[in-house]
Amino acid sequence: MTQLSETKALLQKKARQRCHWLPTLDKSSGILYLSLVNQLAADIANGTLKAGDTLPPQRLLADALQITLGTVTRAYREAERRGLTEAKVGSGTRIRGQQVDLPNFHHLSKALADSIDLSLSTPIPSALRGEQLRQILLRLSSNHAETENAIVYQPEQGNLAHRQRLAHWMNAQGLRVDAQELLLTEGGQHADYLALQTFVRPGEAVASANITYPGMIAAAKQLGLKHINVSSDAQGIRPESLDRICQQQKIRLLYLMAEYNNPSCEMMSEARRIDLVEVARRHDLLILEDGVQFVPPSHRGTPFFELAPERSLYIFSVSKILDGGLRFGALRAPSPLMPKLSSALRAQCWGIAGLMGSVICEWIDMGGADQLIEWQWQEVKHRQQHLRQLFKDYDLRSHEFGFHAWLNLPEDWRASQFVEEAKQRGVTLIGPEPFCVGSYPAPQSVRICVTPPRDFSTFTEGVARLKHLLEQGPSMSTALI
Question: Which of 65, 114, 244, 421 has its Cα between 20 and 30 A from that of 456?
Answer without folding.
Answer: 421
